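User: Hi! I'm working on a homework problem where we have to compare a predicted structure to a textbook description. Could you give me the structure for the chain below?
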Amino acid sequence: MTPSPFTFRPVWLVHFGMTIGAVVISSMLLASDGVVQVFGRWDVVGCAFLAALPLALWVAQSFCELARWQKLVIALGGIVTAMAIAVFAASITQLPDQSVVTLTVCRASIAIVVMLSVVLMGAAVMTPPRSPVLVKQAWLSAAMLGVLALLVPAAYVDAVADGIRIDLERSLETRRFALANQQASQFAQLNPGGTVHQKSVRMVQQELSAIVAKLKADVRRPIAAEASVAALGSRITVLMHLDRNQEALRLLEPLTHGERFEPISLDYKGLCYQRLQQMSASLEAYQAAVAYWESQPASDTKQSSLASAWKGIGFAARRLDQRTLEEQAYRELVEVAPSAENHLLLAQCYREHQKTRLAAEHSTMAMQLNPALQSQSESILSSMSMDHFGCLQIPRR
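Assistant: Happy to help. Predicted C-alpha cells:
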C-alpha cells in the first residue's frame, strides 16, 4: 500500500536539519556582518528558505532517477548560482533607482536554488521525502508553490522593514546615532527605496555614517582624569550617542556624588542603565534624581528635571511589572508637566491595567490639549470598548 504523502517520516527531520544548516552555511559564505546582505536579518533568511523548501522538494522529484554524482554536481552548481544571484542582488541595492520587486525575486531565487541543492545533496545519500501533490495539474502545483516561495517572504520583509523604519525614527529622535546607523543599513538592504522622515534611506544612511565616524574620532581623543565637568559631560554625551553606555557610566560615577556632584548625572545614569536593559539600576538612579529635586526650591529646572525622572521611573516600573509604582510615576508626571503627551502616557498605563474610566478621562484630556494626538487617543478608546466590557465605563462625548 502506498503511504500517504502527508504521513510523517523520520527523513523529514533529516531534511529539516539540513535546511537549517543551509541557512547557516549560506549566510557565512555570502554574509555581510553575519547575514546575507540582501536579506538583512537572520529571521528574513530563515523565512525565505523555509518558504522555498516545498517548491524545492517538488522540483527535486524530477531528478530522483539521476545518479548520485549527478545530483551532487547539480547541487554544487546550485550553490554557485545562488552566490551569483546574491552578488547581483547586492549590487542592485547600491543603484540610485532600486526595485523592491527585483530584490524580492532575487531573495526567492536564492532561497529556492539553495533549498534545491540541499534536497539534492540529501537525495544523494537517502531517499528524499515526496512533496504533497496539491492539485492534479503539475503546472498548477508548481505555480502555487512558487507563489508561496515568493509572497510569504515578501510579506514578511515588508512587515520587518516597516518595524525597522519605526525603530530608526525613534533612534533618530533620541539621538542614538550608532544604533540608527545599524538600523538604516538593515532598512536599506530590505527596502532600498524606502524613506525616513521624508528622506531617502540611502541619504539618511550616508549622513549617519558621517556622524558616527565623527563621534568615534572625538572619542579617540584622550581626556584627562581631572577634566572639567563640561569636558566630561561632552564626552559622556558622545558615548551615549554611540550607545557605549558602560563607558559613559564610568565617567558619570564621580558626578553622581561627592564634591563634583551634578544633579543631571543621575538622569543620565538612569538612561544609561535603561539602554543596557538593567531596569532595577535605572529605577534607583531615577528615584535618586526625584529625591534630590523634591528637596530643591521651585524653578523651571526643577519642574523639567522631575518630569524627566518620573517618566524614567514609570518606564522602569513597567518593565519590572511594578504596577502601583508605574501608576504613581505617571500620575506625578502629569501633575508636574500636564502636557498632552504625558496625559496619553497615563492613559495607556491605565488601559493596560484595565482601569478604563481613568484611561478614557486622560485620553480625552490628551486629545483636547493636542488635537494632533486624536488618532492615538481614539485608538485607546476604541480598544477599551472591546476589552472587558470597557464600553460600559467609557464616557460618551
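For your comparison, note the following. The two ends are 70 Å apart (CA to CA). Confidence is low (pLDDT under 50) at residues 1-6, 385-397. Good luck with the assignment!
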